[in-house]
Amino acid sequence: MDYHIPVLAEEVLDGLAIRPNGVYVDGTLGGGGHSEKILEKLNENGRCLGFDVDPDAIAFASKRLERFGDKFKIVNSNFSFLSEGLYRSGFKSADGILLDLGVSSRQLDNPEKGFSFRAEANLDLRLDPSLKLSAADVINTYSDDQLCKVIRDYGEEQFAWQITKELVKRRAQKPFVTTTELTTAIDAVIFPDKRKKSYARVFQALRIEVNRELEVLKTALAKSVSCLAPGGRLVVISYHSLEDRIVKDFLKYESLSCICPPQQPICQCGKVATVTLISRKPLVPSEEECERNPRSRSAKLRIAERK
Ligand SMILES: C[S@@+](CC[C@H](N)C(=O)[O-])C[C@H]1O[C@@H](n2cnc3c(N)ncnc32)[C@H](O)[C@@H]1O
Predict the structure, then answer these.
(1) Low-confidence stretches of the chain (pLDDT beneath 70)
(2) Burial class (CB in 10 A: 0-12, 13-18, 19+), 153
(3) At what angle do helices 241-255 and 213-227 cross, to 10 degrees?
(4) Sheet containing 228-238: which strands, arranged edge to edge?
(5) Closest ligand 1 atom to the C-alpha of 213?
(6) 95, 191, 200, 295: most buried by Cβ count inside 10 Å?
């Protein structure tokens, strides 16, 4: 069975511009699909480190990539500790770093995790099972203002306040436990034709909050640039606009060599560009890839090269 079909696989390999004896970091190992393709391009001196926080992903990818022996190493850690994991594994820098953000098909389809509103499951949504806060904790314990902010800011849901009021009313009767209890509460305040979109937005919001996804992404981007070797490549695939905006703004800022106001005749900011943008516009999957792998549909890939 396919664990997860790697998205934009050829574009990732081209973007990383693999050197056969280089050191590569796959910050989001998942089923190891991208790592496998990287490893196939490496010679006996090349290395690939795979980070993940999900023990199931780590177990699956370890088995899949067993045949590469010492060329592949697992780092059971959040990618926000990317530089620490790299140094601890004995490397001073990386020649390429890949972040394929979000969740894998396997995680989405795992009914125990509650990532999908389509299956009855506990409201968990933790990628890393050692995290303290679950999605049920967010719904049951946040103040109404905090909860509304999560749903509005991370789900970009226009009916955030109506949904929050319904959740707060229902949790006073009985704390939320399952995904179905959540979708039933949304049904009570959202018109039928808009429900699916609202489910998706609320689940996205809770996942981002529980896993602190935007915060760890910002940390990982900064660390990636600092531990790339000159000429090394950073490749990031995002799946929703909040992530892509963070990646786009970060890379744009890092590529600028001056941030003085335009009316200032001489540069005084001292800003140094750390990367060159390889693609100004994001790469997206072809129609054919979207058909073959519908979960790739929202993917946007950005590439930068360390100066
Ligand atoms: C979209 S999947 C990656 C799929 C992979 N590229 C492949 O080809 O199979 C994302 C993976 O990244 C992991 N992940 C998400 N956020 C993470 C983080 N902050 N640190 C480490 N792993 C993370 C998830 O657990 C998931 O396994």
Answers:
(1) 1-3
(2) middle
(3) 30
(4) 72-76, 47-52, 23-26, 94-100, 228-238, 300-306, 275-277
(5) 19
(6) 95
Q: Identify the residue whose C-alpha is closest to ligand 1 atom 13.
A: 28
Ligand 1 contact via 54 beta carbon (within 6 Å): yes
pLDDT for 2 equals 60
Name the nearest CA neighbour of 205 among 166, 253, 159: 159
Say yes or no: 222 and 91 in one domain: yes
| Residues contacting 248, CB < 8 A, separation 6+ | 282, 302
pTM over 0.90: yes
Q: How far is the CA of 220 from the centre of ligand 1 (A)?
A: 13
CA count, 13 A, side-chain hemisphere, 151? 28
Mind listing the pLDDT tens digit for each residue in 116-146?
898 899 999 999 999 999 999 999 999 999 9
Pocket test for ligand 1, best of 3, 104, 240 (most atoms within 8 A of CB): 104
| 4 is a domain residue | no
Single residue among 211, 227, 243 that ends a domain in this structure: 211
Task: List pLDDT tens digits, range 243-285.
Answer: 999 999 999 999 999 999 989 999 999 999 999 999 889 999 9
- pLDDT value, residue 3: 67
Last residue of a domain, one of 190, 211, 232: 211
Strand partners, 25: 49, 97
- How many C-beta atoms surround the C-beta of residue 218 within 10 A? 15
What pLDDT score does 4 carry?
75
